[in-house]
Amino acid sequence: MPEHATWLTALFNQFLAAPADALLQAVHWRIVDPAHPWTNWMVMELLVVVITMITFAILRTRLSVDNPGKLQQTFELIHTFLVDQTAEADVPHGGKYLAFFGTIFIFVLFMNLIGIIPTFEAPTMYPMVPAGLALAVFFYYNWMGMREHGLGKYLAHFAGPMPLLAPLMIPIEIISHLARPLSLTIRLFANMFAGEKVTAAFLALTYFILPAAFMGLHVFVSLLQAYIFALLAMIYVGGAVAHEH
Questions:
Q1: Which end of the chain is more exposed for a tag (fewer CB within 10 A), N or C?
Q2: Rounded distance, CA 197 to CA 193, Å?
Q3: Within a domain: residue 28?
Q4: How far does Cα 87 stand from its chain's mean position?
């Protein structure tokens, strides 16, 4: 078992190694250590999924118009915030895409924040997780653009406003769009990796005032990075579905 593995990852490798090996082999994933196929980022991401599902299951049973609880009020604030940000990002008919923006924001936020819990790690500090989210955003906004305009008209956007500029604009646009997943990945991964390492370093030195301050900074960075990731998704979708005049 790798020395850096969390206790939860160790349990997964002890009791669920065989199912993981079978699944990874089915998708032709190269298994480095068959006895320990589970990694921290896999286990932490699954844990966040479970926590998210439980949170919304509890929220659903407590929804009330007349007497909303604190959990409902919190998510209503998040919903209002995302609605306002979608409008500010100038996303046409933004309500159609709000479910995706909300999912991205909450999922990234929960994954960022779980690193505050002792012995756990934020899965977003591993590049594979931000890369997967970035690819999801990339395929989503392109798909929404094609649905809104049709394949031919959407691809025509890459040629620019003037036919004479098409040979120049097409390579630039392709490079620009391909760079977006890379930019999203590096931004989220680098910030969360740095935040986790700083917090861990100060926790190793002392357990009093300084760690609390840096954990507060970690919460701020977690919120900020979730917001930036969701905001960029809004901007990309808005650009893809907008009707040029």
A1: C
A2: 6
A3: yes
A4: 21
- Average pLDDT value for the chain: 90
Confirm if 185 and 127 have CB atoms less than 8 A apart: yes
What distance in Å separates the CA atoms of residue 200 and residue 114, rounded to the nearest whole number?
A: 14
**Residue 8 lies inside a defined structural domain of this protein:** no
Task: Encode 10-35: b = buried (16+ Cβ within 10 Å), e = exposed.
Answer: eebbeeebeebbeebeeeeeeeeeee
Q: How many CB atoms lie within 10 A of CB 73?
A: 10
pTM exceeds 0.70, yes or no: yes
Tell me what the mean pLDDT of segment 79-101 comes to. 95
Q: Which of 91, 100, 125, 132 is nearest to 195 (CA)?
A: 125
Domain membership of residue 96 as a residue range: 22-241
Max Cα distance, the chain (Å): 65
Q: In this model, does residue 225 exceed pLDDT 50?
A: yes
Closest-CA residue to 229 (of 147, 131, 148): 131
Question: Is 189 inside a domain boundary?
Answer: yes
Q: Is residue 11 part of a domain?
A: no
Average pLDDT over residues 105-120: 93
CA-CA distance, 79 to 73, in Å (whole number)?
10
Rounded to 10 degrees, what is the CA torsion of 41, 45, 46, 50? 150
Q: Report d(CA 220, CA 40) in Å as an integer.
A: 23
Q: Which of 111, 221, 134, 140 lies closest to 182, judged by CA? A: 134
pLDDT of residue 27: 84
The rounded Cα 147 to chain-centroid distance in angstroms is 23
